[in-house]
Structure formats: structure tokens, C-alpha cells
Write a structure and sequence with these properties.
The protein is α+β, with helices and mostly antiparallel strands. The protein contains nine helices and 24 strands. 27% of the residues lie in helices and 28% in strands. Strands 1, 2, 3, 6, 7, 9, 20, 21 and 22 form a nine-stranded mixed β-sheet that branches. Strands 13-14-12-11-17-18-10-19 form an eight-stranded antiparallel β-sheet, covered by helices on one side. Helix 1 runs antiparallel to helix 3 and helix 3 crosses helix 9. The radius of gyration is 23 Å and the shape is elongated.
Length: 449
């Protein structure tokens, strides 16, 4: 029997705790109150299990076992993206249906947080000790809106000697693209579009958008088609609505961008240069593309793949408008050159570009200690070695100074609908992940003995 199998004794407790945590509407894009509530819940539960806990200014916290100088860590987050529309079950209730566990955060990343807590409990209950190491479950509250929580945590607490974040796919993610998030904004005066709202998070493809066309400028051509609805409001203005398909910003080609559907639709109906600078910018430099080709920033490398661009959020009234963009760039790319090119394109339309955040790429050597430990843990449970891959996703691994990587929880043979409606994991595979997680934590904790 592997050590990892011991987590199966905690199945019912894990599901009960996961149900409680999923019920906390911890959408970081809606403010810090609910993510903080989720953090406090987990810290209090850890304390009740007999662990040392610490709340670091409400931004993050940890639950700790052991007291050695070497710090091992598992980083997870308790905030989630907005639910969006199109769920078949209540998004903030844990629902078990057809062998799957549904709920916002089940895969990203509350499920992993709860599993890691019970892995700590298993280590403690089994009396596993390490003279040289301590192990911490580190919990963040705003990973989905910039990862400043982990940055703040490590500005107050010592860095890790080794660690992983179960916030991606299996096998081992040794390479992550850079993540650049920007806001392009400017005047909207004179635009036929006097209102717009699309998307809830910059790191997700918007699945709904609503634009309002000035009644004085609307014409009979603004009619519904098979993917667009157009109706007169009481004011006489025309409301245009489109639905798309949500997807994670690291894979925007897998979604259908509702914002860009409307922009494309209106550009074929309204007079040239009548949509306002923001929407003319999106028409000219985004259109149907997600690879940055129209922006002049298309590039790729063999290690991490192609650059991607997602229009995640737009907003407008009769005075001003903005769009938020998410750019995932290869490890070999020059971020400064990308920003320079984007700023030039924005200024050509009289717009201002602001860099909201930039997370540099991660590239961990396959010879590193953490990859060796995780390969062994995976083999112990699965009977085969994991692949080592790259991703456009952004995880806390970037905060570990090349001493940590992303590892699980989603298997290639499963799906998660991460950042989409009906987020879920196969129940049995969820507990298979739990075994791998415990095995990995056990090996990290004991690896220097």
C-alpha cells in the first residue's frame, strides 16, 4: 500500500468540507469579502485539527505541520471566477451527478485546497515527522485577479525550498507562458454605441455581451440574426445581445467571444468609423483572431507554444469606453516589445494603454528536485511516469523562484470546464488526485532525510 492511499479514509470529510467551501461565493472580481471568508473558514478548520495557522493580512494564509528549517509548500487559492450563465446545476452548491462533482471551484482551486488540508491531516494522524522540514498549505484569495496575494504572502513570509501548486493538469507543468493583462481606454463621444458590457473576468472568454445603439443613429439593418438579438428599449435605443462560449484565456480559440461577435456584426451594419475608438480598435486589431497577428505580436517557440490574445472585458457609456486584454506570451518573448507594439497600435486610435499586471514566464529545469519528487509520487500511484509539459495558464508556481511547478488535479482522460459553466471533476479521479497529492506531500516532507 502506498502512503498516498491513506487519504481515502478521509473521503466523506473531504466532500463535506468541499461542500462548505464551494457554498462561499468567493468571486475575487466582486471584492475581497467572500474570498476572505473562505480563507478564514479554512484557517479555522486547520486550527481545529491541531495545526499552526497564520492569516497574512487577509490576503493569504497558511496551515503548517512540522517545524524544521526547510519549508515545503503546497499553494492553492480559494477565490474563483464568476459563475457566468449556462449551468445545469447551482454553481455555488457542490452537486454530485453521474459520477461527477460539480460546482464553481471544484477544479479551480477549492477542491485542491481541501484535499491538501486533509493530506496534512493524514501526515499528522499517521505520526509522520521530519527533523529537517516543515510543510505548509498556503491559501490565497485573489489568484484569479492578478496573484498579488501570493506576492504579498512571500513579502512577509520566507520563500519555499520546494513546492507545487495543484492548479493545472497532470503530468508536470515545468513551463508557463508570461501573462500580460492590459486596459485600453479612451473617449467614446460621438460613437453610435452608447453602452456596452461584456465579460466578467479578463482571464476568461466572455460568453455574453450587451451593446446599446443610440436611437438617433440606429437603422433598420440592426435586426436579429441567428446569433444576435436586437430589440428596442423603452427609450427607443436598440439593445444588441450576443451569447458566446466561455473558455479560459489561455485557450481563447476554444471559446466563442460574445464581445467580438457583436463588434463584427455591427461593423458590417454601421457606417465606417462610427463605432467609437475602442470598438474600431478591436475590429481592426482583434477581429476573429486570437494569435496577435493583426496586432503585429504573433510569435511562438518550441518550449511554450504560441502567443494568445483574449478580449476578456469591455465597458462603455456615452462618454468613455475600455477593453481589458489578456496576452499569454512564450518564454522566449520580449514583454517590453509586446507592450510597445500594443501601445503604438492603441495610440493610433487615440487610446491609452495601461499595463495592469505582468507575470513573467516560468521555466523549471527537468533536472530539478521538485520534478524528481513529483515524478516519483506520480509513478507510485499511477504505475507510469508523468509527461512534462508547458501551459498558457498562470499558477502560483511563478512565485516559487523556480523551486516549484504546477501538478494536477485534472487528468488527460477527464475534463474540468475550468472558467466555464458546469465546472466539474470525475469523482473517482478527484480521489485519485488526492492519493497523488498525499504521496507528493509525504515525499517532499521526507526528501531531505
Amino acid at each position: 500500500m502506498s502512503f498516498g492511499e491513506k487519504i481515502l479514509a478521509y473521503r466523506n470529510e473531504i466532500l463535506k468540507t468541499l461542500s462548505d467551501v464551494v457554498a462561499i461565493r468567493s468571486v475575487s472580481a466582486e471584492g475581497s469579502e467572500k474570498p476572505l471568508q473562505a480563507l478564514e473558514y479554512m484557517l479555522e478548520l486547520g486550527k481545529s485539527m491541531g495545526f499552526e495557522v497564520k492569516n497574512v493580512d487577509g490576503e493569504a494564509g497558511h496551515i503548517q505541520y512540522g517545524s524544521g528549517k526547510r519549508i515545503c509548500g503546497v499553494l492553492t487559492h480559494l477565490d474563483v471566477v464568476p459563475a457566468g450563465e449556462g449551468w445545469s446545476v447551482p454553481p455555488f452548491e457542490l452537486t454530485e451527478k453521474d459520477g461527477r462533482l460539480y460546482g464553481r471551484g471544484v477544479a479551480d482551486d477549492k477542491g485542491s485546497a481541501v484535499v491538501a488540508l486533509y493530506c496534512l491531516k493524514a501526515l499528522k494522524d499517521e505520526g509522520v515527522i521530519s527533523d529537517g522540514s516543515m510543510i505548509r498549505l498556503i491559501l490565497g484569495t485573489n489568484e484569479e485577479v492578478g496573484m498579488t496575494d501570493a506576492q504579498h504572502y512571500f513579502s512577509k513570509e520566507d520563500g519555499l525550498d520546494i513546492g507545487f501548486t495543484p492548479d493545472s493538469d497532470y503530468g508536470i507543468c515545468g513551463c508557463e507562458k508570461g501573462i500580460l493583462q492590459l486596459t485600453v481606454s479612451g473617449s467614446n463621444k460621438g460613437s453610435y454605441i452608447i453602452g456596452a458590457k461584456g465579460g466578467n473576468a479578463v482571464n476568461a472568454v466572455p460568453d455574453k455581451a450587451v451593446f446599446v445603439i443610440d436611437k438617433e443613429k440606429a437603422n433598420e439593418k440592426i435586426l436579429a440574426d441567428k446569433e444576435i438579438t436586437a430589440e428596442a428599449e423603452e427609450s427607443g435605443n436598440i439593445k444588441v445581445t450576443a451569447f458566446g462560449k466561455a473558455a479560459h484565456a489561455m485557450e481563447p480559440h476554444k471559446g466563442e467571444n460574445a464581445v467580438m461577435k457583436i463588434v463584427k456584426y455591427l461593423s458590417g451594419i454601421l457606417p465606417d468609423e462610427s463605432m467609437g475608438n475602442i470598438f474600431e480598435f478591436l475590429r481592426a486589431f482583434i477581429s476573429d483572431t486570437t494569435d496577435g497577428s493583426l496586432l503585429g505580436i504573433k510569435q511562438s517557440d518550441s518550449r511554450s507554444g504560441e502567443l494568445t490574445v483574449n478580449v476578456g472585458v469591455v465597458g462603455a457609456d456615452s462618454e468613455k469606453a475600455y477593453a481589458r486584454l489578456d496576452v499569454r506570451y512564450p518564454v522566449s518573448a520580449n514583454c517590453g516589445s509586446i507592450v510597445s507594439e500594443l501601445r503604438k497600435k492603441a495610440e493610433n486610435f487615440g487610446l491609452t494603454l495601461k499595463v495592469d499586471s505582468n507575470l513573467p514566464p516560468l521555466d523549471v529545469s527537468e533536472d530539478s528536485e521538485i520534478i524528481s519528487v513529483l515524478k516519483g509520487a506520480y509513478y507510485e500511484i499511477m504505475g507510469e511516469y508523468p509527461d512534462i509539459y508547458s501551459t498558457g495558464g498562470g499558477t502560483y508556481a511563478r512565485t516559487m523562484n523556480n523551486k516549484g511547478v504546477a501538478f494536477g488535479p485534472v487528468f488527460k482522460s477527464d475534463f474540468s470546464n475550468m472558467h466555464r459553466p458546469d465546472e466539474s471533476l470525475d469523482r473517482e479521479k478527484f480521489f485519485l488526485h488526492a492519493q497523488i497529492c498525499l504521496e507528493a506531500m509525504y515525499r517532499m516532507f521526507k526528501s531531505q532525510e
